[in-house]
Amino acid sequence: MQETSYSETPYTALGFYHKISQLRADTWNALKRDLGILVRLNDESRAKNLIKAIDVKLTRLEIVEDYHAFPSKEDFRHLWTLFDREEYVLLEKVVKRLVRALISESYRRRHVDLSETDADAEDLETLDALAQLRRGHPASNSSAQPYFELLIVDNLSAQEEEVVREAFRNMRRPEDKFVYDVVTVRSFEDALIAVLVNPNIQACLIRYEFPYKSKYNLSALRNYLEGLSEKDLEHQTEAERSILLSSMIHELRPEIDQFLVTSGDVEATASRDIRYFNRIFYRETDYIEQHHTILRAIDSRYRTPFFDALREYSKKPTGVFHAMPISRGKSVTRSHWAGQMIDFYGINIFLAETSATSGGLDSLLQPYGPIKKAQEYAARAFGARQSFFVTNGTSTANKIVVQALVKPRDIVLVDRDCHKSHHYGMVLAGAHVSYLDSYPLNDYSMYGAVPLHEIKKTLLRYKRSGQLDKVKMLLLTNCTFDGVVYNVRRVMEECLAIKPDLVFLWDEAWFAFAGFNPTYRPRTAMHTARSLRDRYRSESYREEYATWKAEFDRLDPDDDATWLDRRLLPDPDEVRIRTYATHSTHKTLTSLRQGSMIHVWDQDFRQKVEAPFHEAYMTHTSTSPNYQIVASLDVGRMQAEMEGFELVHAQVEAALSLREQLYTHPLLQKYFRVLKNSDMVPAAYRESGVESYYDPVTGWNQMEEAWARDEFVVDPTRVTIAIGATGVDGDAFKNEFLMNKYGIQINKTSRNTVLFMTNIGTTRGSIAYLLDVLIKLAKEFDSRWEDSSRPERKIIDNRVRSLTQELPPLPDFSRFHDAFRPDPAGDTPEGDIRQAYFLSYDDENTEYLRFDNGELQAQMRGGRDVVSASFVIPYPPGFPVLVPGQVVSEAILAFLQALDVTEIHGYRPELGLLVFTEAALVAPAEG
Asked: Can you give the residue ranges of the Orn/Lys/Arg decarboxylases family 1 pyridoxal-P attachment site domain (predicted)?
């Protein structure tokens, strides 16, 4: 057998590792199919071609399986032996067993010996597969020991690998909480490939000396190894190379527990920067100590402190002389009428229902026990300094953060098309709001995100006006509902160069999953906060800053171009990292509805924020929080730490498969156009020049380049499809076609787009069903056209033109009326939204004006500033086009007139817009 370079095969998609698990599964199935045909074939010419194809597939699979425990290297030697001996019938049987074991995941529960070929062994695999189908997924079998794989990095011979693997297998005991198998790799590059392509790896043992270069020519590491070479590493000591490998594994998958086995001076090694190693072993340390240390480390992530406490509580006999008749299920188990709740939900949910904060439980408002521990584990999982559970959604989480950090009359820079909870949070806090406009995507009736140039320009206006000290916070949505993701590091770094103590609130409601994927993670708030803190503490940054500052000081500081047209660096002696993120855990990870989290990475939290944060938390958190939601957050965190990498990996794969079909299927392309990077991010914000992540020739290789360099990127798991060519608007397509006809649920639409979001629960079967539905709909639209009369075709053409060409331009924020501006004569745009909001409470201050009959337009032509007295939010697109105190502009009015949606919050068609009377604006009451 020849050792083939992976890059010489058509499977170059390993260069973008997201597709590897699908490639692996599909190639095993194709191999099984080819062998089945071969053993039943009488055509010698076709047989030769099949044998060549089987050889290629085995070669490809051997490369992938080098990084997995099952099938092992010994198993593959057995496959090659059968192939070389031309024992194709037996080879087919072995491959069938192997594929069944992979599908049923029986290898996770017991050792699968592929050398066994008797009927009993095959029956066992079949029973495993049937059991998996009955359960839905083997992981749902809570009685089974959770399985993981241990990666060992060491330059071992094949015989030594088997000795090490067997030694760890012999450590297993029935009483162990977990079961694991061993993967061995021989080089620096192979170790990184293994953690990328094998999600089962949960622990890594780095041993002795190992070379840098892999025996395979794999391109997947080009972005991670930039600047490194074999020549650089050959001069490193064993400890230096091990520490570097450990840091890179941590960057790719920070959840992996790492251990160092050294043959050198263990005490000297321990004194180095070994922060990512759980423990150092000397080479003479016996296997049993390593075994138990590894299991303890895995257990520290597997624990669910509050969920465990709640389960224990549910088993205790108690007498409830407290609130909640439903506690312990008493009010329903004794009922003659409400018993169906028990039938539907089961008894455990009621046994765990309580309002008690004792008996092993805890208080969410002032945690000291299992909830406190669960929140500490969440902080570890999401890379935060502190994390807090929220049981009434991210809308509340946002208000808590704003109230804790913002005092009345503090200036806050806010993304204007952010979630409505932020606008209401500004009202509650009494902030002076300075709205930032995102770049518009007029062709699709949606906004992108706020350009960094716009943010810096606004900060400079406050700097020049002497009010920069009043600017407290920058509030942005990352990622947006439509999947536009910021370059968080660049935004924070350049803003901190202008205002070193600026607080950042990143609304990551739809991005909670991102911390568990190495491509996504660098664009998250918590990862950026930690990496910037480390960067600014380093001597190398001080040197970089000194060089930059010397050049910057030669420029004119009063020229805006000095600040706007170049990258800015903050002063390491002044900068403070103050970052908050809110996550809708229930939206993208496992949690019951309204389960959310607040993550904090604030160097000044203890000194300045802890007390007001506690008060804000008390203000917005119920004294009777739902313990089931708290428990689900605890379990969701554990799942994310243990298998988040695998689940997000599968989510991305599913989205890429969907996109690939939409890019290439001729009938689907006729009516449905999936929006690419270039559709959603203008060229000015795509430094990489990448227009689409997918190319029919090179596959998905361009995604990492865009995510590493561009100001904005698009999350590929959000698949936005332009449907204007169907002649059906987004709302009708969602309800009449997708939901009512086929039971497909989606959330977000615009006038001419629909958004399909994959998540960690999306399966390949779900993708196949969606594609089948879209193909059926495309055929239906074809038939509609063919069966239409000439006048009907005219109507369809008009609808298509309306949805593809006659789209109203999206309006920018106009301005706050001078009555609500703290300094009407000043050059800064902030307004007192709270004052305007509460001024509208008195009926004499407001009136209704209609614009459908020209009444409002006539007032504007007469010179009146018409000022909104309420939030006006059309759905879609779902952002406020008017806020209290904002002047109605002609652009906003034109947009409202052109809208053909029926749901506009804050607007009553029979009355019109609620606006302030002119008298109310002369001397508005204090809010």
From this structure: 304-528, 579-764
